[in-house]
Amino acid sequence: MQLTEWTMLAVLGVYFWTGVMAGWARVKYGVAAPSMDGPLPFQSAQRVQANTLEQLPLVLVPLWLCGQALGDTWAAAGGLLWCCGRILYALGYYRDPAKREAGFIIGMLACGALVAGSAIGLLQQA
Q1: Could you tell me the pTM of the whole model?
Q2: Is residue 104 within 8 Å of 88, Cβ to Cβ?
Q3: pLDDT at 101 > cutoff 80
């Protein structure tokens, strides 16, 4: 499951990147902790980071399950698709919150594919 393991690190790397971007925005716009209110670019960076955190269980659990049940390559492909979707989501949100949909949809489709792959693999093993 080496591909799945590397993909799990990539998922965590995307989350780390969003955290760094939120921290950078906090400093750039002078928003002192623990405040969550500030200019729109700060709020966007903060929401991207929070939403990515909210998505982690939806990708990490089925990523691992899919790798175990269906196979390393399928799981890694789904996880990398999620990473691409999340990056697209973040970059769109940073430009204009209304431009985040495509990345969000790609990420959710990747999660759905990982869940489906997990179920198919488990059913094949039964």
Answers
A1: 0.94
A2: no
A3: yes
